[in-house]
Amino acid sequence: MSYYDVLIVGAGHAGAQAAIQLRQMGFEGSVAMLGDEREVPYERPPLSKEYLSGDKTFERILIRPVAFWTERNIEMLLGKRVKAVDPVGKFVTLTDDSEVSYGKMIWCTGGTPRMLSCPGAEAKGIHGVRRRDDVDAIMARLDEINQVVVIGGGYIGLEAAAVLRKFDKKVVLLEALDRVLARVAGEELSRFYEADHRAHGVDLRLRAMVEKIEATDGHVSAVILADGERIPADLVIVGIGIIPETAPLIAAGATGGNGVDVDAYCRTSLPDIYAVGDCAAHANGYARGAQIRLESVQNANDQAKVAVQHIMGQETEYDAVPWFWSNQYDLKLQTVGLSTGFDQTILRGDPATRSFSVLYMKAGKLIALDCVNMVKDYVQGRAHVISGAVLDQAQLADASRPLKEVDLA
């Protein structure tokens, strides 16, 4: 049985940052990163943007060059998957029944795309967008397909739709709720993006429920809606969220429900096991203390640093301000803070100019911003979200006044 002082399970953003941070902080023990893909760590956000569009090659989205990991004596255990954890014996069992023991373990497995469960969902030609293989399979068929159905009006679905319109594909986007981005943004932003996608030729349907998938010779040929409408499809992309990859930890006794629960130092309830990134549920100050998972590169990187610092004897609690981004057409959306629970919005600027911000307020405090082609608002608004100060609302609404110059109320 091989042994590592720190075993990192998961080779995405969080796992890569954990390994990098260990070496940057002078950790000299043995480190291994175990991942179920064959590739060394790479960036996930470009998969539905620059990689799918062909603007970036795979080599350009690697988090570090291949040689980086060897030079820092970080062993890569790729193409492997953990099926069981023994927190008492401090070892994991892999799907090939081999075992790996550890001194400390950092669980960074993220999640798997939530796929369709309706009749016909097993047909070929239905893809998630989470891994290189997913996007490679889509790209391999671009020349032979014409009509694409995208299921899900979150960031993944909207980004994929935007790229496919660049390739002049017919795109029907189906969202089950009454607006896109409903779980992460207010109505002003949702309606803006709906209008923009429609202006770019996307047939965007709201309150659209998928009943079943129709297949011909085992391959998807149409999506059938609950009202009976048949939408032809050469290819289907599903962007309806992820399922956290935490089953082995939960089976081993870790506390969790929607993900695995961690404390302020990213420790699970199991000894010497940390969890970070998309799979880690934590009490977040920017969500007013609610136990949440954050699916973002920022969260993955910042939690990885906190876990490693704790391993190295530095007790630094996780309190990073959340931020996200999305690129669609010529629109760069940057978000800071969490808008959940807002009681008021302030529109700053004119959406018709394709450059504006939506400010989310709660009890007079700025808790989040969605900035569309407004980099200055994003940069300057961050400080207000962190401060929690009550600000002058008339000044907030005045797009000619820099946010850094807004007075207290």
From TrEMBL:
UniProt domain Reductase C-terminal: residue ranges: 323-406
Domain FAD/NAD(P)-binding: residue ranges: 4-304
Gene3D superfamilies hit by this protein: 3.30.390.30, FAD/NAD(P)-binding domain
The keyword Transit peptide is annotated on this UniProt entry: no
Any single Pfam family the record assigns to this protein: Pyr_redox_2
Cellular component annotations (GO), alphabetically ordered: cytoplasm
Cited InterPro entries: FAD-oxidoreductase/Apoptosis (IPR050446), FAD/NAD-bd_sf (IPR036188), FAD/NAD-binding_dom (IPR023753), FAD/NAD-linked_Rdtase_dimer_sf (IPR016156), Reductase_C (IPR028202)
MF-aspect GO terms: oxidoreductase activity, acting on NAD(P)H
Alphabetized UniProt keyword annotations: FAD, Flavoprotein, Oxidoreductase
Required cofactor(s): FAD
Designated name of the protein: Oxidoreductase
Organism, as annotated: Sphingobium phenoxybenzoativorans
